[in-house]
Amino acid sequence: MDTESEPYVRLASLRQLHQVMADMNTARSLADTLQTVADGVVGGLGYELAAVNLVRQDGDLVVAAFAGNSAAESLITGRVGSRASWDRRLNMGETWGDLRFIPHTEGWVLDEDDVPQWHTDGPEPRFEDEWHPADRLLAPMYTPSVQGSCGELIGVISVDRPRNGRRPGAWGREALQMYAFQAAIAISNARLRANMQRALVRLEREQQALRASEESFRQAFEYAPSGMAIAEMGGDQHGRILRTNDALCRLLGRPASAMRRYSFSDLVHPEDIGTLLRTSAEGGRAELRLGRRDGTYVWVSLRNSVVADAADGPRFLLTHVEDIEERKRRELQLAHRASHDSLTGLPNSAELRSRLSARLCQRPQSLPPGAADALDAAYGDHVAGHPAAFDGTGQTFDLHPRGPYDAFDHHVHTVAPEIDSDDGTKGLAVLFCDLDGFKSINDRFGHNAGDAVLIEVARRLSRGVRDGDTVARLGGDEFVVLANGLGKADAQDLAVRLRNEIIQPIRVDGRAMRVGASFGIGWAHCGMTADEVLKSADERMYVEKRSRPKQHRRAG
């Protein structure tokens, strides 16, 4: 290149340089680009050997491409040199612009380092600018910088043995330096394209996974055997149903289009609205009743979870609705069996005592005057000296903050009429009924007939009382009636009416059977226990039974 025909050689070299640069920018992949860079050095810049050493993520440099000698290519391609060894090379020798030339007189110290290298044999140079086989010429490649300075090192092009056998002159150095600059741009672009391709592949895979996940969710939602709904979360439309599956529509008997007009608060039973409002959005569970289209209600179990949106946070409420009507029915049946007599269907002894105890407290009906009475007397209150004020219905409201109940106690006390006289007080009457002549029916006609008689007596007693009164079977042929708000005369009239109902003939298997009934009337008031109340009514029943002639006690 340094002969007298150099201008013509430079023009030819310029055409070759232009061509190899064009080839670099048309390579399809990063590997193709690296090999094109190595081939361009050999084919366009006039060197017999060229290697492209690429910086890895860990900072070391790997021989990524080689050109000029197939034996050398198979030997050193893929081998790695440490970054420290490369930094040592790039900081020694002569600086030719951005190039680094290490003459053989200095490079012998590098023969034993870990940088992959290939030496060619040849004669000793005869001239000063002749190329020595141990000479090294390196062209660092840096990422482009906006301010024109060198950016980050991305690789090094190492060349050997110029074809003319001489060290490159000014034009050869400028051409190699320009080539390394363009190669850095081509490699950076190839890396960018490769990263973009990987990102596009990853994005496509993520989108495919998202579509598959959405399809899986849709199928799980639509074809779930139990009801599912998606509702609005937050804002003015909180709780509004956006989407339901077929199972929920069938459960409630409503089409999907109609369900979108409701929220769960519109469908829940009025008694269960508090349960729904107390159910948390995330992981909340509740058992309540939802309304069907035909006006009936069905017991369901609700389980909530939040469907999160990656951008805006929680967005929707996913509610799982399970039909528990059958389980609730069994629970109610078990509870009914535990609290009711299996033969007559009446409340049993335990249920009777529970209902009676619920009306009683530990406060006695009469207490000595206290501090409240002194205040009442001082202000002339008409209730002074009395521990309770009547409301005219046989109930009293406690005015004394004694015992376990304080001044804020809202318990309605139960009182009883006077025993010796009818003072007009109305209270909770307890009618203890014992059948007369029932044992003889069991003995003569068998227990099946006796059971039929008990069932009919229970029916007649239930028919003869008011709504809200309790008829219970204690066991055997004993029954108890709880009737609130009665005076002494009212209770006696009720006992007479019920006795007259019971003594009417009862037909069992074509036979007419009759039983009598003895009633004892007791009165419940606060300060008594349920057992004490029942014992009192039982004792009065036996007093009443003994007071009547024996022939009047039975009619069976």
Give the tags:
coiled coil; seven-stranded antiparallel sheet; Diguanylate cyclase CdgB; PAS-assoc_C; 40% helix; 556 residues; 24% strand; Rev_trsase/Diguanyl_cyclase
Short description:
This protein is α+β, with helices and mostly antiparallel strands. The protein has helices at residues 6-24, 30-44, 70-76, 83-89, 104-107, 170-222, 246-252, 256-259, 264-267, 273-277, 325-339, 349-358, 371-378, 438-445, 447-463, 488-502, 530-547, 550-553, and strands spanning 47-55, 61-67, 80-81, 94-96, 99-102, 136-142, 153-162, 227-232, 241-244, 285-291, 297-309, 313-323, 388-390, 395-398, 412-414, 427-436, 470-475, 478-486, 506-508, 511-513, 516-524.
List the helices and strands and how they pair.
Layout: H1 6-24, H2 30-44, E1 47-55, E2 61-67, H3 70-76, E3 80-81, H4 83-89, E4 94-96, E5 99-102, H5 104-107, E6 136-142, E7 153-162, H6 170-222, E8 227-232, E9 241-244, H7 246-252, H8 256-259, H9 264-267, H10 273-277, E10 285-291, E11 297-309, E12 313-323, H11 325-339, H12 349-358, H13 371-378, E13 388-390, E14 395-398, E15 412-414, E16 427-436, H14 438-445, H15 447-463, E17 470-475, E18 478-486, H16 488-502, E19 506-508, E20 511-513, E21 516-524, H17 530-547, H18 550-553
Antiparallel strand pairs: 1-2, 1-7, 2-3, 4-5, 5-6, 6-7, 8-9, 8-12, 10-11, 11-12, 13-14, 14-15, 16-18, 16-21, 17-18, 19-20
Helix pairs in contact: 1-2, 1-6, 2-6, 14-15
